Amino acid sequence: MSQTATKKALGEVRLKVAYKKPEALLSEYTRSVGQGGVTLQVQKSLPLGTRFVFEMHNPGVAVPVEVVGEVVRVTSQPDGRYMITVKYDAGMDRGGLDAVLQRIFDLQAFEKLRRYPRIPLRLLATEEETPFAPPYFVKDLSRGGVGLEVEMPGLPASVKVGMPFMLEMELTLGTLMLHGEVAWTSSGGAEVLPTFGVTFGTLGPDTVERLEKLLSLESLPPAPWRARICFGMDAVMKMP
User: Fold this and answer.
1) How far apart, in whole angstroms, are the C-alpha atoms of residue 2 and residue 134?
2) What region, left, alpha or beta, does residue 132 occupy, with left being phi > 0 and alpha being psi -120 to 50 degrees?
3) Statement to judge: residues 128 and 231 lie in one domain
4) What average pLDDT does range 100-111 have in this prediction?
5) How far is the C-alpha of 188 from the C-alpha of 122, rounded, in Å?
6) C-alpha dihedral sign at 129, 131, 133, 139
């Protein structure tokens, strides 16, 4: 990944970032939009309302993906620098986003082991029913299942193959509830966090519609993006 920043016009800052893989681009896009904003340290102060354009490029896609932001807070620091808070918006132009999604679908069409293409995400998920549970991150999502990462040295005892699972998210179309069971696990390593994959059960028509809208990034949660997960009987009790 490489990046350059330019000030194209008064009141606008454009940041250009290049990604080698479309999956890396989309993962960063969902992370940025999902957070709803970012705080940056800069050398010079910027007026409130300054427009940021986060321009994301991939060699296989002609049209860049854009995340638009606005400076909503500026705080001076003792060393003479400034902390600026930029509030993100997904933007209205989907040309680049649709092209990146199609590029991912095209590349994954050659994978024989997967029935459905997967979309990379970076979404925080919490296990609300379990006190002191570690944070989870949704890494990828497809019509057939979801992959998650656990931010701890090893997998929790509740994460084992065959364990019932439920993931819930609030979308613009309503609550998305995805149920299934843990299909595989990986304990990770010295520099790799533990991960596991879930295979979805039979999903109802409304759920499928909402899932498809999320996979196309047409029906997004309000920022900051959050998901809720549960395992075992807690998951079974919520299943339709």
Assistant:
1) 32
2) left
3) yes
4) 77
5) 18
6) positive
64: alpha, beta or left? (left if phi > 0; alpha if psi -120 to 50) = beta
- The pLDDT value given to residue 12: 82
CA angle centred on 217, ends 236 and 62, rounded to 5°: 145
Structure-block tokens of residue 119: 């979309």
Distance (Å, whole) CA 86 – CA 48 = 10
Alpha carbon of residue 217 to chain centroid: 10
101 and 120 co-located in one domain: no
Residue 44 makes CB contacts below 8 A (sequence gap 6+) with 82
Q: Is 222 exposed, middle or buried (0-12, 13-18, 19+ CB in 10 A)?
A: exposed
Domain total for the chain?
2
Confidence of residue 9 (pLDDT cuts 50, 70, 90): very low
Q: Where are the beta strands (DSSP E) in the chain?
A: 2-9, 12-18, 37-42, 51-58, 61-76, 82-89, 118-126, 136-142, 145-150, 164-171, 174-186, 195-200, 227-231
102: three-class secondary structure by DSSP: helix
**Domain endpoint, select from 80, 106, 132:** 106
pTM score: 0.76
CA–CA separation, 71 vs 87, rounded Å? 6
Which amino acid belongs to residue 29?
A: Y
Tell me which residue range forms the domain holding 206. Answer: 115-238
d(CA 54, CA 91): 10
- Cα–Cα distances (Å) from 224 to 7, 34, 158, 227, in that order, read 28, 5, 27, 10
